[in-house]
Amino acid sequence: MNRRVVRDMLEVAGAEMEEAESAELGLRMIDAETYDAALIDLRMPGMDGLTAIRYIRARGDSKAGIPIVVVTADTAEDLRERCLAAGADDVIFKPVAMDTLFETLGRVLAVEARRGGRIP
Amino acid sequence: MRWYSTVLCGALLLCSPANAGPVEPGGDQNLQALRDALLPDPAGVLRQVRGMKADRRWVRRMSADAMLLLTVDRIEGEALRRVGRATEAEVLFRRLLARVRAVAPGSELHADILLSLGSIRAENSDIADALVMFQQAFRVYGDARRPWGQARALTYIAFLYDDAKDYASAARYLRQAQDLDWRDPALSLSIENNLAGALKELGQYDEADTAYRAALANARARKESGLEARILGGLARTALLRGDAAAADRAVDAGLALTETGAAADARASLLTVQARIRLVQGKARAAARIMDGLTDSPEMKGSSPTSREMHESAWLAYSAADRPADALRHLALLRGLDERATKLATSTAAALMTARFDFANQELRIANLKAEDLRRNAEYARAQTDIERLILAATLTAVMLLSVGLFTIRRSRNKVRAVNDELEAANFELNRALAARTSFLATTSHEIRTPLNGILGMTQVILADGGIAPGTRERVELVHAAGMTMRALVDDILDAAKIEAGRLTVERAPFDLRAVLREACLLWEQPIRNKGVDFRYDFVVDDVPALGDAARVRQVVFNLLSNAAKFTSTGTVSLAARWDGSNAVISVSDTGVGIAPDKLEEIFESFRQADAGVARRFGGTGLGLSISRALARAMDGEISVHSGPGTGSVFSFILPLRPAPVTEEVEPDATVGPLPLLIADAGPISRAVLRSLAEGASIPVVAVTSSADAVAWLAVNSARAVLADASALGDPDRRGEAVAALAEVAAARQVPVLLLTGPDAVSGVPGTVQSIAKPVAGDVLLRRIEALCVSGQSTLVPEAA
Questions:
Q1: Residue B631, domain CATH
Q2: Is the pLDDT of residue B19 over 70?
Q3: Residue B431 has pLDDT above 50, yes or no
Q4: Taking 90 as the threshold, does the pLDDT of residue B266 lie above it?
Q5: What residues of B are in contact with residue A102 (Cβ under 8 Å)?
Q6: Interatomic CA distance for residues B700 and B755, integer angstroms
Q7: Does residue A120 lie in a domain region?
Q8: What is the pLDDT of residue B412?
Q9: Do B758 and B772 share a structural domain?
Q10: Per the CB < 8 Å rule, is B686 touching A111?
Q11: Rounded distance, CA B93 to CA B78, Å?
Q12: Fewer CB atoms < 10 Å away: N or C end of chain A?
């Protein structure tokens, strides 16, 4: 349900999204494809989101720098700090406001763009 | 209450030791002498200060030094407090607080005054107020980098928890105070002694013992034999609880030896009481009773301090063991009286603390606990009374007449015991229910609410983003969306309340525009209120001066008040007004709704309270909004008050002290006078946000629109440094050329350069004046082009209003 929500929102913005049902699958998809950004939930079956982020950041190639936004329904107080410490670029809390999703994605993509990433 | 009774901590904390307190600004040597004299001779200090203030020459000479005059006033207030004129002291401190907020907000003196005022509120059993003030004092001391003051504030907070019998919290705050970086032997002594007491209550006897020994060494070094004797008493009690009667005896003997010499004489009764308990443990009931006999006439037996309580308890136990039931019953009755009072006090203190902390189910739980304890004691009393009546009965067995009366009494007493036991069971049931309530509270606030809510609100947003849906459908989906947003607000409220409860609420101080916040509130609430058939008015008499504050929290309070007014008003008017009163903004929300009965005016600020239980059913809501709003207002040094009567509507006033923002603060760039913005036109919300961030990251102000038509309209009245248009903003793919031409024309008239970002399919008919760059393009490359464009744009342009 929640992946569907984000996908439909991104469709409104004209962006495409591919889904992974678990962190392990997501990591394999990043291996195989090049994406502009990754949206990661914290609670997933199997590997959790923070571990997945650490795996991505530990990569030896240019994909290690992919902009990562955490999307979560958790509201623990130090959550944002923990996500940023793990290597996320930003955090969005559920329920997701569409404007916030777009603004946040824009911001993290701009950071990447300044470093030479392409403009969508 | 503790505030008065615990002379040890009170006396030590309230004095301002010369070696720790920094010299007040103003440099008047007299002040230090006055402060030092506060503890031994408050009446003399009061006379002296009043004398100084009556001396016009002195006042004239000092009139330039506002801080010094405030300091003198503070000493006067402390002196008034100590001579028992608390009401006058409170009035003075309230005035001082307002003045220090104007003259020296955030100063050490500001915090000192908060601490004094908080102590007075605590003495008046207004625990919630006291807690807020101590917390504010802690924050202000922190901002002023005064760890000594922070430690004092924490110690005062610990006392509040101690009064509420929440020893774990008390110990935590005392340890926090110890961990700060300060040196003041008197304060460390007080903290060690109180920490030891709390640890003892928590059953951590080894830790308590260590803390008492540290306090003892400290008291010895300071040659405070009175304090030493009291600490020895604490040490002895701890040893006794640990089952080490010999060690307890040694400590009591050492303490009693000290009481021979005058200064420590006060501690004698308390030490002897411990001795009686030791004798009881040793099985020497008669010796214990003899010791208590010696204390019958001591003044402590008549008081209501913890010492008195302990004495009655010891007397009851000693006389029971020594087979003197009548004496035992007398002391048990007195003990019960004291305990009832203490329980009531602890319950109300705990309740107040909980209200201040917004501890929902915990509050119920702790009160239920206390009630159960109280009932257990009543049961014990009733049982003891039955036993004693049975004894009396045995003594009068010879008289048959009396026998029948006696039997009747026994039956009645047994019934009483049974009734109390039933009550006890009911209390246990309540306790379990409170536990269950807490569990369910945690369950509701969990992650699980937000996940389905994300599905609902996510989909409504996606549907509403589609311009093609039928108007009727749109209206219905908007309703679903609004309901989802309300639900989201409720979840946020509950989380906020939990944050306040845990004392983790923080407010920011950043420049913000009060009027903008108020306008936003109007925008959001005007329509929903009018839709109910209620008129909505607003009137702001506030300047557009940037002030320092927490915009999000101010918004939250104003929204809560408006939501409340909207909820309870079905006909008439809701109005929002704002004006300045000195350095305070006064924001009031008035309604012509159902109103509030006078006896409910304070209750409505308690968590989960609405004027009556039926309200929740009729009007909905968690009942948390007002309590959160008040906590937020107070965290911002402000207040919320209410005037109302049933049927006459209500006026809620939110008083918010605002400091003007420093003039050096960067002001929001203004398109008419500041640097001209870069105009971005892009239909894609994400790519638009990327372009905006990219430019703003390079300190270029941005105005963003979604179509080239909007860009044309904007340029018709404003100017820009340059225009960056994405092909997506050009609308209908077949008419892109026309769109570009229109944009180029109006831009050329303003001499604004245009850069077009093109996608995979080229745009035909782009005029020569328009530069273009094809995607995909790297962000840094595009940024350099934008910067070059902006520079060229500026060189050809004179800003209109400059």
A1: 3.30.565.10
A2: no
A3: yes
A4: no
A5: 685-686, 688-689
A6: 15
A7: no
A8: 57
A9: yes
A10: no
A11: 9
A12: N
